[in-house]
Design goal:
The chain is mostly helical. Helices cover 73% and strands 2% of the residues.
């Protein structure tokens, strides 16, 4: 059994909160005033907006973790899911409102691939290194429980629905309602499961200090932080997007690729910090992995469902003919790659074991398409690396399923999950 971690230094944590709150407020001021205090500096607004998003996202993450100990489990699942997707929501909402079809799905596809291609492998590597330093032995696969199949099947169904959207080449309001319905259904299923046995020692120091406060004080602080973080996302949205475009132009990088990779890195940074902290404890590595799986489900459902609503509302507001979101020829390959990669990841999780081989495959293929996205950008100009990695991921799905056929028990896992839900509700199994 792991020993309980030492209590955090409350003075240092309080100072950290003060610094982050001031940095967030300062970033909002500079970015919203278009760099007025720093006239003549082209980097003032980009640096201020990027810094405000990072600090606000970290504050959001810490307060959401602390809130798990204050509110009922079913409710907090919904709240945390909404909070985690808020930064990505902000970016996609701006592009949808501006009807910027060229960049509209950049953050959605980039964040999906970053979570799976970089996040999942880094969780395994973090747990592996921690385990080796502690035991001098190599780490086996990260094992999941039967009830974790809910996240896996939610990932399969939600991402699989995008096959219809891509083939149709249009993103309509009905798609938004269906994806939103999937998100609500996913939350309902999670609420039927028993609460996670998580202790204060599993929290990062900033979250743990909040939990140790008297409940009323903690609620007030968490509420204030959530209001500040939410307001930041609203106020900083347009400067943040404009800054990404300006920086991309300054470095001669295609806007789509800059948004696709820089935005997810900034907005998901706090989430990765928490996940890697859990993975470092080895026994919490499955929780860290599931945290990122849930984030992918949130992106494929809640985040994606917002796009057609905001886009068509913008058209109606502008007094132009209301039309659905058209999936351009350049965007279809991005969605196919994200979909194929997700299906391979889901195939890995269906066996309830995430192995070192799965980790290496995901990272290598993600890195290849990251450094060489197409025939015009990257190190190899001969062909489109996105298409190659898409086909490789698609081919690996049946391979993974066949290799795991003897040990994979998806129906038994779902049956056991159903019985667990019934036991929680007091019904006989």
């Amino acid at each position: 059994m792991e020993s309980e971690s030492r209590p955090p230094n409350k003075v240092l944590v309080a100072a950290l909160y003060v610094v982050f709150v001031l940095a967030t407020l300062g970033g909002i001021f500079v970015a919203s005033s278009e760099g007025a205090p720093f006239h003549g500096s082209p980097w003032a607004v980009p640096v201020a907006s990027f810094a405000a998003v990072i600090t606000a996202s970290l504050l959001l993450s810490w307060s959401a973790e602390a809130a798990e100990f204050l509110v009922s489990q079913g409710l907090i699942v919904a709240i945390i899911a909404l909070l985690q997707v808020l930064p990505e929501f902000m970016i996609e909402a701006v592009f949808a409102w501006r009807r910027d079809l060229e960049n509209m799905l950049a953050n959605l596809t980039g964040s999906n691939r970053l979570l799976m291609g970089f996040g999942w492998p880094m969780i395994y590597v973090t747990a592996m290194v921690a385990n080796f330093l502690k035991t001098r032995r190599l780490l086996g696969p990260i094992e999941l429980r039967p009830e974790d199949s809910i996240q896996t099947w939610a990932l399969i169904v939600s991402s699989g629905y995008f096959t219809i959207i891509i083939l149709r080449r249009r993103f309509i309001l009905l798609d938004g309602f269906i994806l939103l319905g999937m998100f609500v259904g996913y939350l309902v299923l999670l609420s039927f499961l028993p609460a996670e046995e998580e202790g204060k020692e599993d929290l990062l120091a900033p979250s743990r200090v909040l939990v140790d406060l008297p409940k009323r004080v903690c609620l007030s602080v968490v509420g204030g932080v959530l209001v500040l973080a939410g307001a930041t996302m609203v106020l900083i949205a347009n400067p943040f997007v404009d800054s990404m475009k300006a920086v991309a132009s300054g470095f001669g990088i295609r806007e789509f690729y800059f948004v696709q990779w820089v935005a997810p890195f900034l907005t998901e940074f706090p989430e990765k910090v928490t996940a890697f902290y859990w993975a470092k404890r080895v026994t919490r590595a499955p929780v860290a992995l599931l945290n990122m799986v849930s984030s992918k489900v949130n992106q494929w459902t809640l985040l994606a469902s917002m796009i057609p609503f905001v886009y068509e509302l913008s058209e109606w507001r502008a007094g132009v003919a209301v039309k659905p979101v058209e999936i351009a020829d350049k965007l279809a390959p991005e969605l196919w790659l994200s979909l194929a990669m997700t299906m391979y990841g889901a195939a890995c999780l269906l066996k309830r074991r995430f192995t070192g081989t799965n980790c290496a495959i995901l990272f290598v293929l993600w890195f290849v398409q990251f450094v060489n996205p197409d025939a015009e950008h990257g190190f190899v100009h001969a062909f489109d690396m996105r298409k190659l990695t898409t086909w490789v991921f698609a081919g690996l799905v049946p391979v993974e399923l066949l290799l795991s056929a003897r040990t994979m028990t998806p129906l038994a896992d779902l049956k056991e999950t159903w019985q667990l839900m019934r036991r929680k509700q007091g019904a006989p199994a």
